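Continued from yesterday's entry.
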Amino acid sequence: MFSVAIDGPAGAGKSTIARSAATQLGFIYVDTGALYRAVGLHCIRSGISAEDTQAVADCLEKITVELAFKGTEQRVFLCGEDISDDIRSEAVSMMASNVSKLPVVRQLLLGLQRDIASKNNVIMDGRDIGTVVLPNADVKIFLTASPESRAKRRTLQLEQKGETADYDIILEDIKKRDYNDSHREIAPLKPAEGGIIVDTTELTLEQSIKKITEIISGRIE
């Protein structure tokens, strides 16, 4: 099996770029952030604070988080419910960032991620794929962009959906997530050893997809 690890901060376009590259290459795309979002959504629905580590640990014993694939499309299931469309809000994003700092949550999801990679050709994205989940991945990429660029993209994305978007608030949330993800004790966000750093600040989405696909194709050959 051939594995590609793509890490990077929130809003860098990892999911969109990785999904497109996987489709072009015939790989399965695994959005690991969706797993943490599933746990975050459950905590929100249950009124559980991420700071109450015991409550989070207790709830993990009662839930199931699963990924299913329709072709290369990933769907996320929480206790049998397809929540793929329910985990994309800013509130769930922030909760996911908070619960991802907890060792008990990371341990629960680690085995699931590695099992998928052991059975499929995958492009897997997240915050610690190349450093922790798949340290022996065939290709390791750290995808990044300036906070301002990421905030602009996110604002435009929300506006195109007809949702209200405040650039300043989104920028502040991105900076907060960057700090949280890079300063957590367990698996902090950082480039993997031997990884390739790709900055998409000045690139269009199409250019970013082309660059990532070329990097992976070069390693396959």
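--- second protein ---
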Amino acid sequence: MKTGKTVKRYLHCLLGLLFTAAGIAVTGRAGLGLPPVFSVPNVLVTRLPALSLGTWVIAWGAVLIALQAALSGGLRAAQLVRLLRAVLLGWFVDLSGSLAALLPAEGYAARLALCLTGVVISGFGIALARRAVPAPFAGEALVTTLAARTGKKRDEMQMLFALGCICLAALLSMLFYGSAIVGTREGTILTALFTGPAADFFSSRFEDEPPLGKACREQN
């Protein structure tokens, strides 16, 4: 019975990652920017399209994991789990992106609707993945470690981390395209504001297990 439950939990985690990636792909289809943590890959793929967005997501996830491992005193099994999730998420982003490309995105209203739809889909996916395997994503783990090292509140560090990702994406964009800001727009702000609350909303609706959103943010 325990084996069956374990398999079920990991299948739910895979499904959660698939929904998360689908939300990212739908948001990307809107062309209004991706969530802050993915804004750097979103800029890099415009300049170096030989690598897909999913591949850049994997590479960026590896960078975040390496930073968190360095700050927390070395590589642990938890970081390897996060790396595996980053790889799966990147694969699913490319898979979902090919399907999201078929969605109509004509007119600003339609693009804004796609962006907000992507937020809801990603929120559900994050909640499902957290519930199945209560471990933080790469960005969440780094934020928790940074908060512990600096003594700042986690919510404050989360905001600083998001701003840091946006600023880095803007800097890369200016290096690549001069004064133009590419890949970071109002959709980046909307996803930053609403993806977390959407994930917490869906987490609170899972009745058979307690919501794991806050618990997973507290882990390293």
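The radius of gyration is 17 Å. The longest helix spans residues 2-30. Will compare against the first tomorrow.
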